[in-house]
Write a structure and sequence with these properties.
By secondary structure, the protein is of the alpha+beta class. Helix content is 38%, strand content 19%. The strands form four sheets. Strands 6-5-13-12-11 form a five-stranded antiparallel sheet, with helices on both faces. Strands 1-2-3-4 form a four-stranded antiparallel sheet.
């Protein structure tokens, strides 16, 4: 259970009490003085909005989780749920450092840095008629400026993550990837849901071989449903979906349920073959290929198998990993709430690949997307996942992933001359990161695309 220091809780309570009274009294000498510099730039407390800004920082930097009860002392009643959701989503990125403060008429704007050095802006407005409670609240990204290739690596490095990125010009016949820019391109890092590209390649190969049809129906099982589904969650156990629907949901919605339905239909060996066919640098490292059920059970399920998995990865072999995967698959997946936000990749429980591997699997998918497997191109491009000028980039295939501590993005994009490119990013932290990390990384990726030369 998360705990909070008594001193930190008391600071929040005192701030709240001061602001509740501020609409009807003058600030005391104590409240008018600037805060200490524990959070960076001090926030003056001689205005209601300044006190609310300080209260916001107290809440964000406390180890006590955000909840509606505490937020009700900050925001007007109709905004409590909204503000709670915003604060709770970024609270995981604590501690925050204040870099700049602007106090306006009834407003406060704070520049802050997350614990991994991503710049954000917190803006709020107070209602003087309602105990100076906050009636407008917003958190937005301050995107980094990427004006040349050499700007990318320092921005990734200062996040404290292990990282890799690569921008490649792909041969028009998809036979090779020529690196234009990148860093740590051969470093194996967690793929998160990018691994699903290998499952899609296995599907394409099975369709081409005639052993699988896009129209074949798969039955939703209780085990697969337990993994979660973005768009098909209301379908009951026993309902049926087509292979094409399953593949589309696996890629465009990163659907876990349909991923396992496809792996179980083809067998893990089909995905292991796809790894080799796509040119993965070390296919043996992912043999036996784990289903999502098995790896999720190892990483976040009950009983806790993380240490055993680490031993199997570091000192054992395929037989040891196979034994643990069988054990994990032998019982229903029940996530452990104590470990939901803790990375499993620190124990080696992930799917791994390098930036070079990612480019090769994208190219392999495009080579495979002919004849009966042609729908693969449409499946990959249904959700571009990035805001680019579609006149310049008429085709964008995409797959990203996000697990606790692991963040990845990849795109196969064809420019208006017909030249294909693959752009990928992988970041790995030992700690959970909020959605802010994805927004920040996307802002870098969009600027990276702008650096790709015209032809």
């Amino acid at each position: 259970m998360l705990t909070s220091s008594p001193r930190r809780i008391r600071a929040v309570a005192l701030t709240a009490a001061c602001v509740i009274a501020v609409a009807g009294c003058s600030p005391t000498a104590e409240t008018a003085a600037p805060t200490d510099e524990a959070y960076g730039v001090p926030i003056a407390l001689n205005t209601p909005q300044g006190v609310r800004a300080k209260q916001t920082m107290d809440m964000l930097n406390s180890d006590w989780p955000i909840g509606t009860q505490s937020v009700s002392t900050l925001a007007v009643p109709k905004k409590v749920d909204e503000v709670t959701a915003i604060l709770d989503s970024i609270w995981w990125d604590r501690p925050f450092t204040v870099t700049d403060v602007e106090i306006g008429a009834g407003t406060a704007t704070l520049g802050v840095l997350t614990s991994y050095n991503v710049a954000q802006e917190i803006s709020l407005r107070v209602d003087p008629t309602d105990a100076a409670l906050v009636d407008e609240f917003d958190v937005s990204l301050r995107p980094p400026t990427i004006s040349q290739w050499s700007d990318i690596e320092p921005e990734l490095a200062k996040s404290g993550a292990r990282y890799s990125y690569q921008v490649s010009r792909v041969a028009r016949d998809n036979s090779r990837c020529d690196v234009v820019a990148g860093a740590n391109t051969d470093l194996p890092l967690p793929l998160a849901s990018i691994f699903k590209l290998y499952v899609l390649l296995a599907v394409a190969e099975a369709v081409e071989a005639g052993t699988l049809s896009w129209d074949e129906h798969l039955t939703i099982t209780r085990e697969a449903k337990a993994l979660g589904s973005a768009n098909l969650d209301k379908l009951p156990v026993g309902a049926m979906i087509t292979v094409k629907t399953a593949a589309q949901e696996m890629i465009s919605a990163s659907d876990n349920m349909t991923t396992d339905l496809l792996i179980n239909r083809m067998g893990p060996a089909a995905v292991e073959k796809a790894l080799a066919d796509a040119g993965h640098h070390d296919p043996a490292s992912m043999i036996p290929f784990p289903t999502m059920h098995a790896l999720f059970a190892v990483g976040w399920g009950q009983p806790d198998l993380r240490e055993q998995w680490r031993e199997a990865v570091e000192k054992g072999g395929p037989q040891d990993r196979a034994r643990l995967l069988r054990q994990a698959s032998s019982h229903p997946y029940e996530p452990d709430p104590e470990r939901t936000h803790t990375p499993a990749s620190t124990y080696g429980a992930e799917w791994y690949g390098s930036a070079a591997d990612i480019c090769r699997v994208h190219a392999a998918l495009q080579r495979a997307a002919v004849g009966p497997a042609a729908p693969v191109r449409e499946i990959l491009s249904a959700i571009p996942g990035i805001d680019l000028d579609r006149a310049k980039w008429p085709y964008i295939g995409a797959k990203g992933g996000n697990l606790p501590g692991d963040l990845s993005f990849s795109w196969y994009a064809v420019d208006d001359t017909g030249q294909p490119w693959v752009v990928s990013f992988q970041l790995n932290w030992p700690t959970f990161r909020s959605r802010t990390a994805a927004t920040w990384l996307l802002s870098i990726a969009e600027q990276a695309f702008a650096l790709i030369p015209d032809h």
